[in-house]
## 1
Amino acid sequence: MIDIQNMKLAECEALSRWIDPRYGFLSPDKFIPALEANREVYKVDCHVLDGYGQDAEFLREKKKEIFPISFNISRTDLEACDIYQKIEETVARYGLSRDQVHIEITESALNDSSQAMVEAVQHFHDLGYQVWMDDFGSGYSSRKPLAL
């Protein structure tokens, strides 16, 4: 994300992409549903956050600026593991601050199980994280902060 007032990078978004040697580029709508159906997408989401932690550690050593990151979590992340604990462990392992990690939840996830997602958003807020609504699959990128 670019801050249009000063035209500088303000935040990054971690996006999962898959380039398969046989099938080529696979967009998330081709592989995420299968991972969600098998309750395995949390592994990708945790890997993405861990990669950010590694990058932040590298940048910190080089005395470079570390920008906040937003990354997606799935509704099934809440069911398949203790995603809160996994995020907290990664944040602690890499010495990140909670304001450097922004959590994005897809709009469709909010519609699927609204009470569970409201509780998840509240729990993330209670832990000190910003939570954003991501309109994944809508054809354009737009995020809105979620407030309860």
## 2
Amino acid sequence: MNISMTRIQAILMKDYKEFSRNYAVSSMVLLPIILAFLYNQSGASSINAYLLPINITFSMVTAYIQCCLIAEEKEKNTLRSLMLSPASLGDILIGKSLFVLIVTMIVVAISIFIVGYKPSNLLILAISLILSTVFYIALGTICGLFSKSIMEGSIIVLPVIIIFSFGPIALNFASTYPILKIAEWLPSSQLLLLAEALEGKYSMIDVFIPMITIVVWSLLSWFLAAFIYKKRMVD
């Protein structure tokens, strides 16, 4: 697979221009920041409170914006042209993901700063946040490929926002409703478990299992995204 940095940069700049012109999409970056500010003002200091704005960022910023950017391409019939261009699959997927990755990292960093979260091991947490971002970008890509317009994409991505943002909250009811224990294996819940482990005495297993779980989710999601993308090329 040939990777062209020139093509990736061109796709990145195109996404930036579309994002800056669409205020309905770009305004979504403010929601996690506002939530982090409210948590800071309320004096919340638990790991759950720290991680909620981050998980909200992943679903309502990362997945949502990625979905809408791809859906907008389909709505304007420019995605087909991009598929038929000399750009390779890698060029397109990386180019369409890089802008959202940058935006996500900025919003997550601002949210962490505002809420006052000071992780005990910043390096491990940073790696897990990047891996989570990669996963949510894949989810947004899948939702975008199934959408025909921004409006439709906004609806399709709603299950992602609901399921993956509030997975850790579902764990609080797992004792009453045992079926909710499955939420423990969601990337958002694994990120919370990892953050909790880092605050105490943790072993390699405590770090390894959440990391591997998020990586597996990411790989499966990207394989599915690439499969759907290739299918759309021949439709």
## 3
Amino acid sequence: MISYEPLFKTMKEKKITSYKLQKAGFSRATYYSIKQGNSISTNTVNQLCRILKCGVADIIEYREDD
């Protein structure tokens, strides 16, 4: 399963709030969809990496299903 925990950790480390993401052009609806664990496109991952100036591993990670 894909986890977005790295995204929230990266945001916290960089002191980026969901409001700052929105101001940078990131959709609020997409952010809340991520919070609910829904899947995202590679375009969305790319956009987050650009805004946060980080790598893919700082956004998502794969975890084995229980």
## 4
Amino acid sequence: MKKQCTEKRSFYSVMLAFVVVIGVLSGCSGKDDKTSEQLSATEIGKSIEQAVSLKEMKKQDLNKLQKLYKMDTDSVDDFILYTSTSNVKADELAVIKLKDERQAENVKENIEQRIEAQKMKFKDYRPDEYFLVDHHVLKTKGPFVFFAVSTEADSMERTFDSAF
């Protein structure tokens, strides 16, 4: 009988320890981390601005977004767009949050058309800028589309990735 009582206590002790461990681990699950639904393109843009200098670029509006990427602006939830202040430079940064993440591939295809047009523009005219366009970063993460053409595109991408 004493053995049975000891076994029950051991069982309850193990179960209690298990519950405590689960509680602690769930407390460390990163509740402060923002989901892609809570995160905005503007917040990601601010993080990128802190990580790299965008002083050679100009912030653009929704009309420019539509013009460059031939996209339905009604599908955009939030965005940031920077382009070069000069038409002889290829620098460009876009973080677009879509209302429906199923549209991300469409937007990505439109940006790829922009990339091809920029390659044609700079290929024989500005080889350094062509190199930047050729080594662009274009990716999607949930409802977000990220596009960067810059000497600092890698840093921009790391900042974008770390937002999630």
